[in-house]
Amino acid sequence: MSNNNNEPKSLKRRMETDEQENSSSKKSDIPRKSLLESEKTFVVRHVFKDVSEFEEGIINSNKEEGHFNVPWSIGLKRKDGHLGYYINCHQSSNLKQFCVEVNANLIAIGPAGKMHNRVLHNTFRARSSLGFGNFLEWETLVTDFLVNDSLTVEAQVRIIETSGLGKEKIRSFDETQQAVSDVMLVVRSSEFYVSRLFLAAQSTFFKAQLLGNCSGSNDPKVPLNGIDPFDFHYFLEVLHGESAIDDSTVEGVALLADMYDAQTAMRRCEEFLVEKSKKSLKKKLQMASRYRFENLKQQTLEKVQTTRDIRSIVSDSTNINDFDQSTTLELLKKSVSQF
Fold first, then answer.
1. Cα–Cα distance between 183 and 175 in angstroms, integer?
2. Considering the domain 50-162, what is its CATH architecture?
3. Which residue, 42, 78, 49, 75, is CA-closest to 61?
4. Which pLDDT tens digit goes with each residue over 204-245?
5. Which of 207, 221, 252, 301 gives a 20 to 30 Å CA spacing to 328?
6. Do the Cβ atoms of 66 and 250 come closer than 8 Å?
């Protein structure tokens, strides 16, 4: 079938973009991983419909979606002649000590690529919403950004640090381990006492960092920048053979295993996602694409059987760049086969 108006538009856009990139690109020596791929970053995207019917002072939110053990959504509000735009963090009220520090770029997208954005750096504590009550004048929104009374919004989020969200820790890496350790790794204000040789055997990064000829490789105290200390604790537990992977920790552990080239930890993350995880089909395909989990990708795609399955993964609100090209192509084939 050569044309199908029921295919998700985002799938078509991704395939067209990939074809354009592939036709003009040449082989590059740039390292595979970019900075963003080694950070706790994600995108929440949604198309709000019937925007002109928003009631004054009422929050309108999309369905929650989970990223790095936190449920997120976008909230929009019409008030006092402005559009309010918020990123919502939906943590249980039972977590009295939870804390999530973020950088977020909140974007409204209009026709012909027109955009308006504001950036926030803040911390979720007791409050579940952060953003701007005067993000955009309502009149400007109506005249410059609405398409068929719909508004496309996108929140690009980078998690800087979390606390109070994880599972109970199994193993200690504090000063009680100092007698059997020869290096202290420092992640923000947390200290981890570990063995150089053990880490070097598990990770090519740590082999170079702790045993190589680079500056500071012999230092007794080594700082690690740009990572979350809670994620690093569970990552170390996995390296030491503990059962630390569950649906609340697997994203953070996989991120660090990929960053530090720790292949055993990568395999254990993929095995958990294939065999035990309750995460959605969409989330599994996102992780399979990001971390090159081929077994997970194939198993998950085999479970995509119906139009409803496809729509749960891809819609006009989906950030299709979350999927690699082969996943996008397979989803497109499945979409076409339904009609």
1. 11
2. Sandwich (2.60)
3. 75
4. 999 999 998 877 778 999 999 989 999 999 999 999 999 999
5. 252
6. no
Assigned superfamily of 175-273? Potassium Channel Kv1.1; Chain A (3.30.710.10)
Half-sphere CA count of 235, side-chain side, radius 13 A: 26
pLDDT digits (tens, 9 = 90+) for 159-204: 998 887 667 899 999 999 999 999 999 998 999 999 999 999 999 9
Looking from the CA of 129 toward its CB, the CA atoms found within 13 Å total: 15
d(CA 43, CA 63): 14
Domain ranges (residues) in the chain: 50-162, 175-273, 280-337
Strands 82-89 and 99-109: unpaired
Phi/psi at 204 (5° precision): -65, -30
